[in-house]
Write a structure and sequence with these properties.
The structure is a single chain. This protein is α/β, with parallel strands linked by helices and 293 residues long. The chain has two domains: 11-68; 88-292, Rossmann fold, CATH 3.40.50.150. Helices cover 42% and strands 20% of the residues. The protein has helices at residues 11-22, 25-36, 40-45, 53-67, 72-76, 97-116, 133-141, 154-164, 169-172, 214-217, 222-225, 233-241, 261-271; strands at 78-81, 84-87, 122-127, 145-151, 175-179, 194-199, 204-205, 226-228, 246-255, 275-280, 286-292. The protein has a seven-stranded mixed β-sheet with strand order 5-4-3-6-9-11-10, sandwiched between helices. Strand 1 (78-81) and strand 2 (84-87) form a beta hairpin. Helix 2 (25-36) packs across helix 4 (53-67), helix 6 (97-116) packs across helix 7 (133-141) and helix 12 (233-241) runs parallel beside helix 13 (261-271).
């Protein structure tokens, strides 16, 4: 595919031409920031300056990828998630706003446990960590938490390791990445000691795959999205397995699809949690199962 033609002019002219092509002012700004290497304030200051040829060429490559349908996050190569800026690519799901809410509820549960257990560090497990954003957010935002982050996909763990390496050493050393399937990957010594199990597992049914937007279906990993024939397979594994590894007042926080709230609550009830509820996401859809032993 031939890169879109861009005339050599000022950044202001490039802004106009890019905006005409992508038809989204926010995307336009992000693409120009990435191409120029400038932050928003510096780019605005230099709008009437002439861009160098390397920046023009880079913008052309970014535009070509975006106009071909590649997700903006992949085109940029990084994305913001809460306090983090993480590397994103096809090895794991692009971090989504719904998962930021999962972290919010997980932190609330950790704070509750920290108040009750003021005598030491808390341990958490992030099951199916993908790019690592949940585990990394927990340790970045709470300095008394240690996290074991598991994934059965080696490529996803390599991406998580890349993102982990960007944290300061005193924060990064509180995350342990382990390859393996759900609870089987956890060190035996943590069983019964975890204060929190958190997960954004795959929760789509196989029949839903074909109907996904192309920018999801063609770029996000199948195994990170599709759980099996019903879509509940991974949620069931996470919900039913947590009581064996949680401490007596530990918590479970799991992202679910909006139409799975009833089934998720039934699974929690059958597994013997003392309380369970489903919290809404930012647009009012049931999204996060929170259960306590």
């Amino acid at each position: 595919m031939t890169p879109p033609e861009i005339s050599v002019a000022t950044w202001r002219q490039l802004w106009r031409e890019t905006s005409d092509k992508v038809a989204d002012p926010v995307e336009t700004r992000w693409l120009l920031e990435e191409a120029s290497g400038l932050d928003a304030s510096d780019l605005l200051r230099d709008l009437d300056q002439s861009p160098d040829l390397a920046s023009i060429a880079r913008l052309g490559r970014l535009l070509e990828r975006r106009l071909s349908g590649e997700p903006l996050q992949h085109v940029l190569g990084h994305w913001g998630f809460r306090t983090l800026d993480v590397v994103v690519d096809s090895r794991a799901l692009v971090p989504r706003p719904e998962t930021e809410l999962v972290v919010e509820f997980a932190l609330f549960e950790l704070d509750r446990l920290a108040f009750a257990h003021s005598d030491g560090e808390l341990w958490a497990a992030d099951l199916g960590t993908g790019s690592g954003v949940i585990a990394l957010s927990l340790v970045a935002e709470r300095d008394t938490v240690r996290v074991v982050a598991t994934d059965c996909d080696q490529a996803a763990l390599e991406l998580a390791a890349t993102n982990l390496s960007a944290l300061s050493s005193d924060v990064a050393e509180r995350v342990q990445l382990v390859e393996g399937d759900w609870y089987r990957a956890l060190p035996a010594g943590l069983r019964g000691r975890l204060g929190l199990v958190v997960s954004n597992p795959p929760y789509l049914a196989e029949r839903e795959w074909a109907g996904l937007d192309a920018n999801v279906r063609d770029f996000d990993p199948f195994g990170a999205l599709v759980a099996g024939p019903s879509g509940l397979e991974a949620i069931e594994a996470v919900v039913t397995g947590a009581p064996a590894v949680l401490c007596s007042d530990g918590s479970l926080v799991v992202e679910i699809a909006p139409d799975q709230a009833k089934e998720a609550l039934e699974l929690a009830s059958d597994a013997g949690y003392s309380t369970a509820r489903v919290e809404d996401d930012l647009v009012g859809r049931p999204r996060v199962l929170v259960a306590r032993r």
